[in-house]
Design brief:
This protein is an alpha/beta fold and 160 residues long. It has helices at 6-9, 33-43, 63-71, 83-100, 116-125, 140-143, 152-157, and strands at 13-18, 50-56, 74-78, 105-109, 129-134, 148-151.
């Protein structure tokens, strides 16, 4: 893990969570996810404000889980069943972040390697800081698109 650079320490961090491809891991409580992400960031000296947006078909998530996530500030964005529309929505949100946001830190939680080249480019050319949380089966190209990585399961099940 790489510690935050000075310019990133106090900067805001946006968490873009592909809940379709990276669901809540077994053994993790929905109401603790936000806190666990904050803790992981603070251990690397990312101390700025954090916002978390989850994207996916929310119809598959039990109401109690949606309520628990929402109660901790996770913004749930329903995307219709078609997985292509989910990727498209996430891509539009990522583009907006990369080109229009003052937030310089991004945690992308996914396994969708179709975003690799964009994540690398934004980090290199747009002076954005990309961090990834991914499942164990993520592709090498996806994993290499960021300097800071977490396994999604271990991030969510770490001790608070």
């Amino acid at each position: 893990m790489e510690m935050a650079e000075a310019k990133a320490e106090e900067a805001a961090t946006w968490v873009c969570w592909d809940i379709e491809n990276c669901p809540i891991p077994n053994g993790c409580k929905a109401e603790e996810i936000s806190q666990k992400i904050s803790l992981a960031l603070s251990k690397l000296n990312y101390l700025g404000p954090i916002s978390i947006s989850a994207y996916g078909n929310m119809n598959h998530i039990p109401p109690s889980v949606k309520k628990a996530l929402s109660s901790t500030g996770v913004v749930l964005n329903h995307v219709h069943v078609n997985s292509r529309s989910s990727s498209s929505r996430i891509f539009r949100e990522l583009l907006d972040w990369a080109y229009n946001s003052d937030t310089s830190n991004l945690i992308f939680i996914s396994r969708d390697d179709s975003f690799c080249s964009y994540l690398s480019k934004w980090q290199r050319d747009r002076n954005k800081n990309v961090l990834l949380a991914h499942p164990p089966n993520a592709s090498d190209s996806f994993v290499s698109s960021a300097k800071t990585l977490w396994l999604w399961n271990s991030l969510c099940t770490s001790l608070i």
